[in-house]
């Protein structure tokens, strides 16, 4: 199986048209230049570990430091980053920084598809189609230990707690949305950003942030792929 170019190509993509979500203003369903500016700041990345560690993982991956990439993607995955979970799937499938482990790759892909994002559902189905019967059984087994750490039921709580704490720190006191803010950015350079942009609810309100993330990643329904019914790894009682 060829590496899923889409997963690699979108890791740090910060400007692309996306499908809007029902509860998100249409204007917010695009990562524009102002979003890029805010998202490049140290303050934003520290407040959003899902994106911070995804970025670190991608930089390590690009440098061929696969062990470091796995560590960073795993940390991002703890905060529910589906792109990082998909990358962990790809790396396990290809044996990058580890021995080839196709069942483990499927387990990660299953987690990445948890929210129904079309690209990652398709990735999971392609993996399932390529697995043998024994590999499919093992995929379900190795996926069980991942659930208490990386499933949405756990990671969304962790992300919400982190973001609420960051929100209290960043905007808990008096602030002026109409005034510009100066925040540290890449290369220890200070960046001037409009307060209205920096303090946007979609960045700091956990519910709005999740809606915005879904708006970025959700596509029209996937095309039907006749590969057999993929298994969803669930808890065993």
Strand order across the biggest sheet? 1-2
Quick one: overall form? globular
Rg over CA atoms, rounded to whole Å, is 18 Å
> How would you describe the oligomerization state of the chains in this entry?
single chain
Mean pLDDT: 78
- Distance, first to last CA: 34 Å
- By secondary-structure content and strand pairing, the structural class works out as mainly alpha
Question: What are the segments in which pLDDT stays under 50 over at least 5 consecutive residues?
Answer: 11-29, 220-231
Task: Report on the biggest sheet.
Answer: 2 strands, antiparallel
Compute the number of strand runs.
Answer: 2
Explain the overall architecture.
With 237 residues, this protein is mainly alpha-helical. The chain has one domain. The chain is 58% helix and 4% strand. The chain is built from 14 helices and 2 strands, in the order H-H-H-H-H-H-H-H-H-H-H-E-E-H-H-H. The protein has a two-stranded antiparallel ribbon. Helix 4 runs antiparallel to helix 5, helix 5 packs antiparallel against helix 6 and helix 7 runs antiparallel to helix 8. The longest helix is centred in the C-terminal third of the chain and has 20 residues.
């Amino acid at each position: 199986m060829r590496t899923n170019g889409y997963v690699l190509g979108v890791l740090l993509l910060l400007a692309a048209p996306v499908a809007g979500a029902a509860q998100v203003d249409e204007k917010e369903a695009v990562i524009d230049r102002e979003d890029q500016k805010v998202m490049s700041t140290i303050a934003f990345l520290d407040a959003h570990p899902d994106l911070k560690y995804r970025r670190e993982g991608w930089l390590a991956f690009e440098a061929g430091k696969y062990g470091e990439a796995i560590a960073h993607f795993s940390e991002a995955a703890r905060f529910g980053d589906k792109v990082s979970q998909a990358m962990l799937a790809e790396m396990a499938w290809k044996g990058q920084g580890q021995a080839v482990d196709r069942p483990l790759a499927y387990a990660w892909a299953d987690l990445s598809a948890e929210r129904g994002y079309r690209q990652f559902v398709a990735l999971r189905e392609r993996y399932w189609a390529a697995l043998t019967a024994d590999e499919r059984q093992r995929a379900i087994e190795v996926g069980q230990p991942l659930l208490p750490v990386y499933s949405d039921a756990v990671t969304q709580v962790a992300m919400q707690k982190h973001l609420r704490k960051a929100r209290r720190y960043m905007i808990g006191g008096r602030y002026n949305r109409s005034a510009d803010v100066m925040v540290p950015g890449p290369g220890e350079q200070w960046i001037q950003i409009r307060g209205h942009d920096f303090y946007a609810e979609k960045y700091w309100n956990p519910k709005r942030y999740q809606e915005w993330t879904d708006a970025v990643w959700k596509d029209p329904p996937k095309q039907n792929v006749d590969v057999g019914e993929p298994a969803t790894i669930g808890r065993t009682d």
